[in-house]
Amino acid sequence: MLDSRFAWRLALLGTPSLSSLTMPESRVSLERKTATLLAYLAMEGPTSRARLVELLWPETPAGAARNNLVHLLRRLRDAVGAELVEGGEVLSLHESVSVDARSELDPAEAPRAFAGGLLETVDLDDLPELSEWILAKREQIAVARARQYEAALARARASGDAAEAVSLAERWVDLDPLHEVAYRALMQAYYDLGDRPAALRAYHRCKAVLARELGTDPSPETHALARDIDRGTLGRVTSGRAGHGRGRLPLTVLRPPTLVGREDVWAKMEEAWANGLGIMLQGDPGSGKSRLAQDFLRSREGHQILLFQGRPGDVDVPYATHARNYRQTLEANPDLELPEWVVRELARMIPELGEAPPPMATEADKRRFYEAQYEVVRLVAERGPLIICTDDVQFMDEPSIEAGAYVGSRFWGDTNTLLRCLYCHRTNALPPYSAALLDSMYAAGVMVPIELPPLSDAAVSTLIGELDVASAVSAASEIARVTRGNVQFVLETVKNMVERGDGDVRPIAGPDEGVSAMIQERLTRLSQGALQAARAAAVLRREFSLELVAQTLGIGLLDTANAWEELEDAQVVSGEAFSHDLVLETVLSSMPASVRRVLHRSAARVLASAGAPPARVAAQYQEGEDARQAAPWLVKAAESALANLRFAEAHEAYTAAARTYAALGDAVGEASVRRALEALAKRVEQTAS
């Protein structure tokens, strides 16, 4: 018998090996037939010598094959100094040998970190029967692991530990990236955690992997789960984690399950759609334009959808809006076959695509750039009916507006392409260029404006009834009076009631001031770390990540992630975006001036290091009141605008740089910029002639 003091551990997952439990450093590598013999005995139990010989040396004469087995066992004994395999005509693994792969087959075991597949590094192509046996065992282990994960996830959900469920589901997806059940578990776990955007990202990840690896779509069950998550109608297990001194907000308050009070507006949208017109939704901040547009898009079955969006801060950077939106379009259509010239032109605003052409010198160069953007949309539209929805038009930069108008005009009169457009903007918030463009489209009869009025008192009551907050239901009439039918104001009021826990509806002046005041009150309940993370994100404005937020604050990424979790719980952010642009604006407006200056300067340094567009860096330094740093970046912004034939933006940046140098008393810098302005004026004159 083998002395227990010399017990060994047999590793069959990944690279096979033996190691002593009392002397871990005594690791013994196993050649392939020794490893396969031990694996077979470990997984199948006692086996006759005749059967083992038949499996390991199928083409060798019986006598020689038996001798091979004897020599193999002797070499193993000499290597480890003990008899790990015992028996006469029937061989078995000694009972004291522990085997990592066995625990993988026990459904009661908790899932472990993946160490590799069974005999993953062993080549058995010349042993067909063993090769088939290995494949079957690997499949058996995969099924058992799935059951372990399902059981562990069920335990996590039952205990309300959504964070643990997310961790388990992420590990399961990493282990088996083609297993739809794992993706569904991940989607459910994120939803339980209150992170609906992450849940939907998990669905799109599943969809992309299945399309790329198997050429298939997710099953109806997975699609239905994604639809319920998107609508907020899925049952949810709330997390048992401690909060941050406030009531936990129901997910329904972030996105109410159904749209209410918009029947008349919906009918107008249907009429415009039936007449082949573009639709422009306009309304006050927080009136529900984005939600209405999203629900309308979902009702258009059989259509592809491209979601474009303007963001605060875009106006400072030429083509900022289109750079982001075309990048998203290419990511959503990874198999889109673009001509080489299109890729090169797009590289002007999406640098990761490769080397861009030389700076634009003529209007023909600009048209070619715009034509490349048209080509992308055309190729997507070739795949089926397409809807382009552009939200928050008021935040878009003028060059993107101009390019978008060019792309749209190329489709006018094209009866072979099914392209429809839907836009949203705040009432009376468009810059002059955008407003004039829309007026011309209204006059041409190709687009219809549709205004969103405040909700009626009855609609507010219906909305509140859907939010799953009992104290709000009893105060519905008072909430309707205070909020004056502004959807976001209603939601912020209910969030405040939940967090305060007192059921009080506090009267505030009106929607414009009221929403901001409600959000400000909620911000005061955040921890200092979470509030600073929100401030840094708000300063970064249009595009940020947790990494950029951490660098701006000068703190660790883990600390930032913990703060971000609190912000998501409070529905201040959703994923890597603010839950509503009104929240972003309130965070900015309520920030102390001294804090704001420091964060803007820090953000400028971070963005400069990250290779952000010069105009974005310059704007950060300007808002940080660091004129000495802002001036040279304004010059770089002007030069970048010139490279894209944006003469107006170049003139504006040069003029700002000249004023800044003058204020600094830098006569040399000012003179240099004045010369650049003179050269720009001559170039504009030459271009016009």
Automatic annotation (TrEMBL):
PANTHER family: TRANSCRIPTIONAL REGULATOR REDD-RELATED. Transmembrane segments: none annotated. Coiled coil: none annotated. It comes from the Bacteria. Residues 99-230 form the Bacterial transcriptional activator domain. SUPFAM superfamilies: P-loop containing nucleoside triphosphate hydrolases, TPR-like. This is AAA ATPase-like protein. InterPro entries: AAA_16 (IPR041664), AfsR-DnrI-RedD_regulator (IPR051677), BTAD (IPR005158), P-loop_NTPase (IPR027417), TPR-like_helical_dom_sf (IPR011990), WH-like_DNA-bd_sf (IPR036388). Gene3D superfamilies: Tetratricopeptide repeat domain, Winged helix-like DNA-binding domain superfamily/Winged helix DNA-binding domain.
